[in-house]
Write a structure and sequence with these properties.
The protein is mainly alpha-helical and about 475 residues long. It has helices at about 1-15, 25-35, 45-50, 60-75, 85-110, 115-125, 130, 140-155, 160-175, 180-190, 195-220, 230-240, 255-260, 265-275, 275-290, 305-325, 330-355, 360-370, 385-390, 415, and strands spanning about 380, 400-405, 420-425, 450-455, 465.
Protein backbone atom coordinates (compact mmCIF):
# COMPACT_ATOMS: atom_id res chain seq x y z
CA UNK A 1 0.00 0.00 0.00
CA UNK A 2 3.05 2.29 0.08
CA UNK A 3 2.81 3.06 -3.63
CA UNK A 4 -0.90 3.82 -3.39
CA UNK A 5 -0.37 6.01 -0.32
CA UNK A 6 2.33 8.02 -2.07
CA UNK A 7 0.16 8.54 -5.13
CA UNK A 8 -2.84 9.53 -3.01
CA UNK A 9 -0.73 11.95 -0.99
CA UNK A 10 0.65 13.72 -4.06
CA UNK A 11 -2.81 13.88 -5.67
CA UNK A 12 -4.26 15.35 -2.48
CA UNK A 13 -1.47 17.92 -2.42
CA UNK A 14 -2.43 19.05 -5.92
CA UNK A 15 -6.08 19.25 -4.85
CA UNK A 16 -5.15 21.60 -1.99
CA UNK A 17 -2.83 23.60 -4.25
CA UNK A 18 -5.46 24.04 -6.98
CA UNK A 19 -8.93 23.43 -5.49
CA UNK A 20 -10.83 25.15 -8.29
CA UNK A 21 -11.80 23.86 -11.74
CA UNK A 22 -11.61 24.85 -15.40
CA UNK A 23 -14.25 24.87 -18.13
CA UNK A 24 -13.46 21.30 -19.23
CA UNK A 25 -14.43 20.09 -15.75
CA UNK A 26 -17.44 22.37 -15.45
CA UNK A 27 -20.26 20.02 -16.43
CA UNK A 28 -19.22 17.19 -14.12
CA UNK A 29 -18.50 19.37 -11.10
CA UNK A 30 -21.76 21.32 -11.52
CA UNK A 31 -23.66 18.05 -11.94
CA UNK A 32 -22.11 16.71 -8.72
CA UNK A 33 -23.23 19.86 -6.90
CA UNK A 34 -26.77 19.63 -8.26
CA UNK A 35 -27.15 15.96 -7.41
CA UNK A 36 -25.93 16.61 -3.87
CA UNK A 37 -27.87 19.81 -3.21
CA UNK A 38 -30.94 19.64 -5.50
CA UNK A 39 -31.53 15.90 -5.76
CA UNK A 40 -34.63 15.10 -7.85
CA UNK A 41 -35.47 18.76 -8.60
CA UNK A 42 -34.04 18.72 -12.13
CA UNK A 43 -35.29 22.18 -13.07
CA UNK A 44 -32.76 23.66 -10.63
CA UNK A 45 -29.83 21.90 -12.29
CA UNK A 46 -27.19 24.10 -13.92
CA UNK A 47 -27.59 22.60 -17.40
CA UNK A 48 -31.31 23.46 -17.34
CA UNK A 49 -30.88 26.99 -15.98
CA UNK A 50 -28.07 27.69 -18.46
CA UNK A 51 -28.62 25.37 -21.46
CA UNK A 52 -26.19 24.95 -24.32
CA UNK A 53 -23.44 22.91 -22.71
CA UNK A 54 -21.99 19.90 -24.54
CA UNK A 55 -23.91 16.79 -23.43
CA UNK A 56 -21.98 14.51 -21.10
CA UNK A 57 -23.09 11.51 -19.09
CA UNK A 58 -24.47 12.02 -15.59
CA UNK A 59 -23.34 8.54 -14.58
CA UNK A 60 -19.90 9.77 -13.53
CA UNK A 61 -21.24 12.58 -11.32
CA UNK A 62 -23.84 10.16 -9.92
CA UNK A 63 -21.04 7.80 -8.92
CA UNK A 64 -19.04 10.55 -7.20
CA UNK A 65 -22.10 12.08 -5.53
CA UNK A 66 -23.09 8.71 -4.10
CA UNK A 67 -19.62 8.21 -2.62
CA UNK A 68 -19.39 11.75 -1.25
CA UNK A 69 -22.99 12.05 0.00
CA UNK A 70 -22.46 10.76 3.59
CA UNK A 71 -19.49 13.09 4.11
CA UNK A 72 -21.17 16.07 2.44
CA UNK A 73 -24.29 15.53 4.56
CA UNK A 74 -22.17 15.42 7.71
CA UNK A 75 -20.35 18.59 6.65
CA UNK A 76 -23.67 20.39 6.02
CA UNK A 77 -24.99 19.41 9.45
CA UNK A 78 -21.78 20.71 11.03
CA UNK A 79 -22.09 23.98 9.10
CA UNK A 80 -18.88 23.48 7.13
CA UNK A 81 -18.38 25.83 4.18
CA UNK A 82 -19.86 24.44 0.96
CA UNK A 83 -16.58 24.75 -0.97
CA UNK A 84 -15.24 21.81 1.05
CA UNK A 85 -17.91 19.61 -0.50
CA UNK A 86 -16.10 20.24 -3.78
CA UNK A 87 -12.92 18.97 -2.11
CA UNK A 88 -14.78 15.83 -1.04
CA UNK A 89 -16.13 15.17 -4.52
CA UNK A 90 -12.72 15.59 -6.11
CA UNK A 91 -11.10 13.47 -3.42
CA UNK A 92 -13.60 10.69 -4.16
CA UNK A 93 -12.61 10.80 -7.83
CA UNK A 94 -8.91 10.66 -7.04
CA UNK A 95 -9.43 7.63 -4.78
CA UNK A 96 -11.28 5.81 -7.55
CA UNK A 97 -8.43 6.44 -9.98
CA UNK A 98 -5.85 5.39 -7.37
CA UNK A 99 -7.80 2.16 -6.84
CA UNK A 100 -7.68 1.42 -10.57
CA UNK A 101 -4.00 2.41 -10.73
CA UNK A 102 -3.32 0.04 -7.84
CA UNK A 103 -4.79 -2.86 -9.83
CA UNK A 104 -2.53 -1.98 -12.74
CA UNK A 105 0.46 -1.56 -10.40
CA UNK A 106 -0.12 -5.05 -8.96
CA UNK A 107 -0.06 -6.55 -12.45
CA UNK A 108 3.15 -4.67 -13.25
CA UNK A 109 4.76 -6.03 -10.08
CA UNK A 110 3.52 -9.54 -10.82
CA UNK A 111 4.61 -9.53 -14.45
CA UNK A 112 7.87 -7.54 -14.38
CA UNK A 113 9.11 -7.69 -10.80
CA UNK A 114 9.22 -5.53 -7.70
CA UNK A 115 12.11 -3.44 -9.00
CA UNK A 116 10.16 -2.32 -12.06
CA UNK A 117 7.11 -1.62 -9.88
CA UNK A 118 9.18 0.63 -7.59
CA UNK A 119 10.55 2.59 -10.55
CA UNK A 120 7.05 2.76 -12.02
CA UNK A 121 5.79 4.37 -8.81
CA UNK A 122 8.72 6.78 -8.58
CA UNK A 123 8.31 7.90 -12.18
CA UNK A 124 4.54 8.32 -11.83
CA UNK A 125 4.59 10.47 -8.69
CA UNK A 126 7.37 12.73 -10.01
CA UNK A 127 5.48 13.52 -13.21
CA UNK A 128 2.92 16.30 -13.13
CA UNK A 129 -0.06 15.86 -15.42
CA UNK A 130 -1.10 12.29 -14.67
CA UNK A 131 -1.30 12.81 -10.90
CA UNK A 132 -2.70 16.34 -11.28
CA UNK A 133 -5.62 14.97 -13.33
CA UNK A 134 -6.56 12.31 -10.77
CA UNK A 135 -8.96 14.61 -8.93
CA UNK A 136 -10.03 16.82 -11.83
CA UNK A 137 -13.62 16.12 -12.91
CA UNK A 138 -12.79 15.73 -16.59
CA UNK A 139 -14.57 13.09 -18.68
CA UNK A 140 -11.04 11.80 -19.29
CA UNK A 141 -10.45 11.29 -15.57
CA UNK A 142 -13.57 9.13 -15.30
CA UNK A 143 -12.44 7.23 -18.40
CA UNK A 144 -8.97 6.82 -16.87
CA UNK A 145 -10.46 4.66 -14.11
CA UNK A 146 -11.71 2.12 -16.62
CA UNK A 147 -8.68 2.44 -18.89
CA UNK A 148 -6.43 1.42 -16.00
CA UNK A 149 -8.75 -1.42 -15.01
CA UNK A 150 -8.89 -2.59 -18.63
CA UNK A 151 -5.10 -2.59 -18.90
CA UNK A 152 -4.76 -4.55 -15.67
CA UNK A 153 -7.32 -7.13 -16.86
CA UNK A 154 -5.50 -7.36 -20.20
CA UNK A 155 -2.21 -8.14 -18.45
CA UNK A 156 -4.11 -10.62 -16.29
CA UNK A 157 -5.73 -12.12 -19.42
CA UNK A 158 -9.18 -11.80 -17.87
CA UNK A 159 -11.11 -11.05 -21.04
CA UNK A 160 -14.59 -10.91 -19.51
CA UNK A 161 -13.61 -8.17 -17.08
CA UNK A 162 -11.55 -6.47 -19.80
CA UNK A 163 -14.58 -6.22 -22.09
CA UNK A 164 -16.81 -4.90 -19.29
CA UNK A 165 -14.31 -2.28 -18.10
CA UNK A 166 -13.52 -1.25 -21.67
CA UNK A 167 -17.20 -1.04 -22.50
CA UNK A 168 -17.90 1.30 -19.59
CA UNK A 169 -14.98 3.53 -20.51
CA UNK A 170 -15.88 3.66 -24.22
CA UNK A 171 -19.69 3.77 -24.19
CA UNK A 172 -20.15 6.13 -21.25
CA UNK A 173 -17.11 8.35 -20.81
CA UNK A 174 -14.71 8.56 -23.79
CA UNK A 175 -15.42 6.67 -26.98
CA UNK A 176 -11.90 7.41 -28.23
CA UNK A 177 -10.56 4.93 -25.67
CA UNK A 178 -11.25 2.34 -28.34
CA UNK A 179 -8.11 3.58 -30.11
CA UNK A 180 -6.00 2.16 -27.27
CA UNK A 181 -8.11 -0.70 -25.94
CA UNK A 182 -9.20 -1.93 -29.38
CA UNK A 183 -5.67 -2.96 -30.46
CA UNK A 184 -5.30 -4.93 -27.22
CA UNK A 185 -8.39 -6.96 -28.02
CA UNK A 186 -7.37 -7.38 -31.67
CA UNK A 187 -3.97 -8.70 -30.57
CA UNK A 188 -5.59 -11.33 -28.36
CA UNK A 189 -7.94 -12.33 -31.18
CA UNK A 190 -5.06 -12.75 -33.62
CA UNK A 191 -3.01 -14.75 -31.12
CA UNK A 192 -6.04 -16.95 -30.27
CA UNK A 193 -6.08 -15.89 -26.62
CA UNK A 194 -9.80 -15.27 -27.00
CA UNK A 195 -12.18 -16.82 -29.52
CA UNK A 196 -13.95 -14.66 -32.09
CA UNK A 197 -17.44 -15.95 -31.23
CA UNK A 198 -16.89 -15.46 -27.51
CA UNK A 199 -15.48 -11.98 -28.10
CA UNK A 200 -18.38 -10.90 -30.31
CA UNK A 201 -21.01 -12.29 -27.95
CA UNK A 202 -19.53 -10.61 -24.89
CA UNK A 203 -18.88 -7.33 -26.70
CA UNK A 204 -22.39 -7.09 -28.15
CA UNK A 205 -24.03 -8.09 -24.87
CA UNK A 206 -21.98 -5.72 -22.73
CA UNK A 207 -22.09 -2.90 -25.28
CA UNK A 208 -25.85 -3.15 -25.74
CA UNK A 209 -26.49 -3.20 -22.00
CA UNK A 210 -24.24 -0.22 -21.31
CA UNK A 211 -25.71 1.75 -24.19
CA UNK A 212 -29.22 1.14 -22.85
CA UNK A 213 -28.16 2.24 -19.37
CA UNK A 214 -26.51 5.49 -20.45
CA UNK A 215 -29.27 6.42 -22.90
CA UNK A 216 -32.03 5.75 -20.34
CA UNK A 217 -30.33 7.49 -17.42
CA UNK A 218 -28.94 10.47 -19.32
CA UNK A 219 -32.07 11.05 -21.41
CA UNK A 220 -34.02 11.38 -18.17
CA UNK A 221 -31.69 14.07 -16.81
CA UNK A 222 -31.16 15.90 -20.11
CA UNK A 223 -34.88 15.95 -20.90
CA UNK A 224 -34.39 14.51 -24.40
CA UNK A 225 -33.26 11.28 -25.98
CA UNK A 226 -29.47 11.35 -26.02
CA UNK A 227 -26.40 9.15 -25.99
CA UNK A 228 -23.99 11.80 -24.69
CA UNK A 229 -20.70 10.25 -25.70
CA UNK A 230 -22.04 9.30 -29.12
CA UNK A 231 -23.20 12.87 -29.73
CA UNK A 232 -19.83 14.33 -28.74
CA UNK A 233 -17.96 11.80 -30.88
CA UNK A 234 -20.17 12.55 -33.88
CA UNK A 235 -19.52 16.28 -33.61
CA UNK A 236 -15.78 16.18 -32.93
CA UNK A 237 -14.71 13.22 -35.05
CA UNK A 238 -17.26 12.30 -37.70
CA UNK A 239 -18.02 15.93 -38.58
CA UNK A 240 -14.38 16.80 -37.75
CA UNK A 241 -15.50 19.95 -35.95
CA UNK A 242 -12.81 19.79 -33.26
CA UNK A 243 -10.80 22.36 -35.21
CA UNK A 244 -13.17 25.01 -33.80
CA UNK A 245 -11.33 24.57 -30.50
CA UNK A 246 -8.03 25.37 -32.20
CA UNK A 247 -5.43 23.20 -34.01
CA UNK A 248 -2.35 22.16 -32.04
CA UNK A 249 0.99 20.38 -32.75
CA UNK A 250 1.35 16.61 -32.92
CA UNK A 251 1.39 14.80 -29.59
CA UNK A 252 4.78 13.18 -30.21
CA UNK A 253 6.68 16.45 -29.86
CA UNK A 254 4.15 18.47 -27.88
CA UNK A 255 2.08 16.74 -25.20
CA UNK A 256 4.11 13.58 -24.60
CA UNK A 257 7.30 15.37 -23.50
CA UNK A 258 5.24 17.46 -21.06
CA UNK A 259 3.36 14.43 -19.75
CA UNK A 260 6.34 12.10 -19.38
CA UNK A 261 9.01 14.63 -18.46
CA UNK A 262 12.59 13.37 -18.48
CA UNK A 263 11.28 9.78 -18.29
CA UNK A 264 10.48 9.97 -22.00
CA UNK A 265 14.20 9.36 -22.66
CA UNK A 266 13.94 5.87 -21.16
CA UNK A 267 10.78 4.75 -22.97
CA UNK A 268 12.54 3.76 -26.22
CA UNK A 269 15.26 2.02 -24.18
CA UNK A 270 12.65 -0.15 -22.49
CA UNK A 271 10.98 -0.88 -25.82
CA UNK A 272 14.30 -2.04 -27.30
CA UNK A 273 15.27 -4.12 -24.27
CA UNK A 274 12.19 -6.34 -24.02
CA UNK A 275 9.56 -7.64 -26.42
CA UNK A 276 6.92 -7.36 -23.70
CA UNK A 277 7.49 -3.61 -23.56
CA UNK A 278 6.89 -3.39 -27.31
CA UNK A 279 3.63 -5.29 -26.88
CA UNK A 280 2.56 -3.10 -23.94
CA UNK A 281 3.32 0.23 -25.59
CA UNK A 282 2.06 -0.61 -29.10
CA UNK A 283 -1.61 0.22 -28.29
CA UNK A 284 -0.49 3.50 -26.73
CA UNK A 285 1.52 4.41 -29.83
CA UNK A 286 -1.46 3.58 -32.04
CA UNK A 287 -3.71 5.86 -30.02
CA UNK A 288 -1.24 8.73 -30.02
CA UNK A 289 -0.61 8.43 -33.76
CA UNK A 290 -4.30 8.30 -34.69
CA UNK A 291 -5.31 11.08 -32.30
CA UNK A 292 -2.59 13.29 -33.72
CA UNK A 293 -4.46 13.31 -37.04
CA UNK A 294 -7.26 15.37 -35.46
CA UNK A 295 -6.66 19.14 -35.58
CA UNK A 296 -7.54 19.89 -31.95
CA UNK A 297 -5.34 18.15 -29.40
CA UNK A 298 -5.08 18.34 -25.64
CA UNK A 299 -2.85 16.36 -23.33
CA UNK A 300 -5.86 15.07 -21.40
CA UNK A 301 -7.09 13.24 -24.52
CA UNK A 302 -4.15 10.82 -24.29
CA UNK A 303 -3.61 10.74 -20.53
CA UNK A 304 -4.43 7.00 -20.56
CA UNK A 305 -1.18 6.15 -22.40
CA UNK A 306 1.05 7.60 -19.68
CA UNK A 307 1.02 4.50 -17.40
CA UNK A 308 1.90 2.23 -20.34
CA UNK A 309 4.87 4.38 -21.36
CA UNK A 310 5.89 4.66 -17.70
CA UNK A 311 6.14 0.88 -17.42
CA UNK A 312 8.57 0.84 -20.37
CA UNK A 313 10.58 3.67 -18.79
CA UNK A 314 10.57 1.88 -15.43
CA UNK A 315 11.77 -1.35 -17.05
CA UNK A 316 14.66 0.53 -18.66
CA UNK A 317 15.58 2.28 -15.40
CA UNK A 318 15.57 -0.98 -13.45
CA UNK A 319 17.78 -2.75 -15.99
CA UNK A 320 20.23 0.13 -16.36
CA UNK A 321 20.43 0.68 -12.60
CA UNK A 322 21.14 -2.99 -11.92
CA UNK A 323 23.91 -2.96 -14.55
CA UNK A 324 25.40 0.09 -12.85
CA UNK A 325 25.57 -1.76 -9.55
CA UNK A 326 27.37 -4.70 -11.14
CA UNK A 327 29.98 -2.72 -13.09
CA UNK A 328 31.95 0.42 -12.25
CA UNK A 329 32.02 1.29 -15.96
CA UNK A 330 28.29 1.96 -15.76
CA UNK A 331 28.41 3.89 -12.47
CA UNK A 332 28.05 7.30 -14.15
CA UNK A 333 24.87 6.11 -15.82
CA UNK A 334 23.30 5.36 -12.44
CA UNK A 335 23.43 9.07 -11.63
CA UNK A 336 21.57 9.78 -14.88
CA UNK A 337 18.93 7.15 -14.14
CA UNK A 338 18.29 8.42 -10.62
CA UNK A 339 18.85 12.07 -11.52
CA UNK A 340 16.13 12.09 -14.15
CA UNK A 341 13.60 11.83 -11.31
CA UNK A 342 14.96 15.11 -9.96
CA UNK A 343 14.45 16.70 -13.38
CA UNK A 344 10.87 15.42 -13.30
CA UNK A 345 10.39 17.06 -9.90
CA UNK A 346 11.76 20.39 -11.14
CA UNK A 347 9.46 20.34 -14.16
CA UNK A 348 6.55 19.34 -11.94
CA UNK A 349 7.23 22.23 -9.55
CA UNK A 350 7.21 24.67 -12.47
CA UNK A 351 3.98 23.30 -13.96
CA UNK A 352 2.28 23.10 -10.56
CA UNK A 353 3.07 26.74 -9.77
CA UNK A 354 1.68 27.81 -13.14
CA UNK A 355 -1.46 25.71 -12.72
CA UNK A 356 -2.15 27.04 -9.23
CA UNK A 357 -2.40 30.56 -10.69
CA UNK A 358 -4.78 29.51 -13.45
CA UNK A 359 -8.15 29.75 -11.69
CA UNK A 360 -8.98 33.47 -11.29
CA UNK A 361 -12.75 32.91 -11.34
CA UNK A 362 -12.68 30.59 -8.36
CA UNK A 363 -10.35 32.88 -6.41
CA UNK A 364 -12.48 35.94 -7.24
CA UNK A 365 -15.75 34.39 -6.08
CA UNK A 366 -14.10 33.09 -2.91
CA UNK A 367 -12.65 36.53 -2.16
CA UNK A 368 -16.04 38.17 -2.74
CA UNK A 369 -17.49 36.03 0.04
CA UNK A 370 -14.64 37.07 2.32
CA UNK A 371 -14.99 40.79 1.53
CA UNK A 372 -18.79 41.13 1.71
CA UNK A 373 -20.87 40.20 4.79
CA UNK A 374 -23.08 37.15 4.36
CA UNK A 375 -26.21 39.05 5.41
CA UNK A 376 -25.72 41.76 2.77
CA UNK A 377 -28.14 42.04 -0.13
CA UNK A 378 -25.98 40.83 -3.02
CA UNK A 379 -26.67 40.08 -6.66
CA UNK A 380 -23.50 39.06 -8.47
CA UNK A 381 -22.95 38.49 -12.17
CA UNK A 382 -20.31 35.91 -13.05
CA UNK A 383 -18.81 36.59 -16.47
CA UNK A 384 -17.63 33.99 -18.95
CA UNK A 385 -13.99 33.88 -17.84
CA UNK A 386 -14.94 33.56 -14.18
CA UNK A 387 -17.39 30.74 -14.95
CA UNK A 388 -14.72 28.95 -16.98
CA UNK A 389 -11.98 29.33 -14.40
CA UNK A 390 -13.40 28.06 -11.14
CA UNK A 391 -16.59 29.91 -10.16
CA UNK A 392 -18.68 26.78 -9.63
CA UNK A 393 -21.91 26.35 -7.68
CA UNK A 394 -19.94 24.94 -4.76
CA UNK A 395 -18.67 28.51 -4.30
CA UNK A 396 -22.19 29.96 -4.21
CA UNK A 397 -22.24 29.76 -0.45
CA UNK A 398 -24.96 32.17 0.70
CA UNK A 399 -28.58 31.19 -0.10
CA UNK A 400 -29.74 34.80 0.28
CA UNK A 401 -27.34 36.00 -2.44
CA UNK A 402 -28.38 35.96 -6.09
CA UNK A 403 -25.84 34.49 -8.51
CA UNK A 404 -26.19 34.92 -12.28
CA UNK A 405 -23.96 33.85 -15.15
CA UNK A 406 -26.08 34.80 -18.17
CA UNK A 407 -23.81 35.13 -21.19
CA UNK A 408 -23.60 37.74 -23.96
CA UNK A 409 -24.71 40.69 -21.87
CA UNK A 410 -23.41 43.90 -23.43
CA UNK A 411 -20.63 45.55 -21.38
CA UNK A 412 -22.04 48.54 -19.56
CA UNK A 413 -25.64 47.56 -20.29
CA UNK A 414 -28.44 48.34 -17.86
CA UNK A 415 -28.71 44.64 -17.02
CA UNK A 416 -25.09 44.39 -15.94
CA UNK A 417 -25.12 47.70 -14.10
CA UNK A 418 -28.13 46.51 -12.10
CA UNK A 419 -26.05 43.86 -10.31
CA UNK A 420 -24.57 44.89 -7.00
CA UNK A 421 -21.33 43.03 -7.75
CA UNK A 422 -19.59 41.97 -10.95
CA UNK A 423 -16.87 39.45 -11.69
CA UNK A 424 -15.40 41.00 -14.83
CA UNK A 425 -12.46 40.01 -17.01
CA UNK A 426 -10.00 42.84 -17.60
CA UNK A 427 -6.34 43.19 -18.55
CA UNK A 428 -5.70 45.44 -15.55
CA UNK A 429 -7.46 47.80 -13.12
CA UNK A 430 -7.47 50.56 -15.70
CA UNK A 431 -8.82 48.55 -18.64
CA UNK A 432 -11.30 50.30 -20.93
CA UNK A 433 -14.13 47.82 -20.35
CA UNK A 434 -14.15 48.71 -16.64
CA UNK A 435 -14.91 52.37 -17.36
CA UNK A 436 -18.50 51.40 -18.18
CA UNK A 437 -19.08 50.85 -14.46
CA UNK A 438 -17.13 53.80 -13.04
CA UNK A 439 -20.23 55.66 -11.88
CA UNK A 440 -22.08 52.64 -10.43
CA UNK A 441 -19.38 50.31 -9.11
CA UNK A 442 -15.94 50.42 -7.54
CA UNK A 443 -13.16 47.83 -7.68
CA UNK A 444 -13.12 45.74 -4.51
CA UNK A 445 -10.17 43.61 -5.53
CA UNK A 446 -8.24 42.52 -8.61
CA UNK A 447 -7.31 38.85 -8.97
CA UNK A 448 -4.25 38.14 -11.08
CA UNK A 449 -3.86 34.94 -13.09
CA UNK A 450 -1.18 33.00 -14.93
CA UNK A 451 0.10 34.80 -18.00
CA UNK A 452 3.27 33.12 -19.23
CA UNK A 453 6.64 31.68 -18.30
CA UNK A 454 9.66 33.95 -18.47
CA UNK A 455 13.26 32.80 -18.94
CA UNK A 456 16.32 34.58 -17.57
CA UNK A 457 19.48 32.51 -17.54
CA UNK A 458 21.26 35.08 -15.34
CA UNK A 459 19.06 34.30 -12.35
CA UNK A 460 18.10 31.22 -10.33
CA UNK A 461 15.80 29.62 -10.99
CA UNK A 462 16.05 30.64 -14.65
CA UNK A 463 12.30 30.14 -15.19
CA UNK A 464 9.58 32.14 -13.47
CA UNK A 465 5.79 32.10 -13.61
CA UNK A 466 4.40 35.48 -14.65
CA UNK A 467 0.89 36.63 -13.70
Amino acid sequence: MIAESLLTGVAFGYLILAPYTKVEESFNIQACHDMLYHGPFLSRYDHHEYPGVVPRSFLGPAMLSTLALPFVTTARVMGVNKIYSQYLVRLALSLLVVFAWSRFYQQVKKGFGMGVAVWFTAITITQFHFVYYLSRTLPNSFALIFALLSCSYWLEQNHKKFIVASGIGVAIFRIDLVLMLGPMLVHDLVTKRIGLKSCLFQSVTVGGTLLAVTVAFDSLLWGRWVWPEGEVFYYNTILNQSHHWGPLPWYFYSALPRALGASILFVPVGIVLDKRMRLLTAPALVMVALFSLLPHKELRFIIYVVPLFNVAAAYACQNLYMRCRKSTRWSALSAVVVGHLLLNCLLTALLASASAANYPGGVALWRLHELVPAEAHVSVHIDNLAAQSGATRFLQMHPNWHYNKTEDLRPGSRELRSFSHLLVEAKNKYAYNLKHYADTHRILEAVEAFSHLSFNYQQFPPVKVRI
